[in-house]
Input
Amino acid sequence: MKTTKSLSPSKKAYLAIFLALLSVTSMAQVETYPKNSFKINLSSLALKNYNFTYERSLARKVSFVAGYRSMPSTNLGQISFVNKALDRMDNTSLKDDLDQITTSNKTYTGEFRFYGGKHAGARGIYLSLYGRYSKFNVDYDYAYSTENKDYAIPISSSLKGLGGGLMIGAQWLIAKRVTFDWYVIGAHYGSLKGDATGIADLSSMTNEEKADLKDDFEGKVSIADKNYFRADVSNNGITAKPDAPFIGIRGLGFNLGIAF
Output
C-alpha cells in the first residue's frame, strides 16, 4: 500500500506565492483597452470652428492629448449662435461692432490628462493640465467721426497668444470603439501680443482730434477700465501694439471619436 507524502510548510508557501503571481499575471493580461483615439469637437461647429484632437494613453490612467483648431475667415456678426445670444442681451451697440469684425484663427493645444475611476484607459472623470498657442488675424472696419468729417479706417491685426490652464472633464467608452469626451469647465491664462495697423489719410485732423482718436481706439479693448492697446496716430493712420492677458474658457465641449 502506497503512502502519499504531504508537502512541507515551506513548499506550501512557495506554491501559494506562485499561484498568486500566476493569478495576477493572468489578470494583467486580460486588462486590455484602446490606447488611441481621434475626436472631433461637435460644439465648436456652432462657432464655425473645426476642432480635432488625438489622444494617446501613456499609462493605465494617464494620457497625452494633441489638439488643433481652425476657424476660417468669418464675420462675427454673421454667426447664428452669436446673433441669438445678442438678441437675448438686446445689445445693439455690441452687435454693430461685431458686424465690423472679421477674424480667423489657428490654435494648438497640448495637454496631460489624469483619469479617475476603476476602469483602465482614458475613461472616467479627468483633470487636464494644458498649454495653448493661438494665432489670430482680425480685420475691423473702424469708423470715427469729428465735427467736420467722417473717417473710415480699416484695421488689420495679427495677434499671438500663449498660455496654460486647467480643465475638468469626463470621457466614456461606448461599445469598445466610440468615445464621448465632455469638457465640463476649464480656463487658461497667458499673454497676448501682436501688431495692428490702420492705413488712412488723417492729415486733415488737428492734433487735438488725433489725441481724441487715440483715446477712442485704445478704449475699444479694455477690461475694468484698463486699456490693452497702445496706439499711435499720424497723418498716415493708426499703428498699435496690443499687450493684453490671454484669457480663455473651455467648457460645454462635446467631442465624438473613434478609439483604437
User: Anything to note?
Assistant: The longest helix spans residues 9-30. The chain has a mean pLDDT of 89.
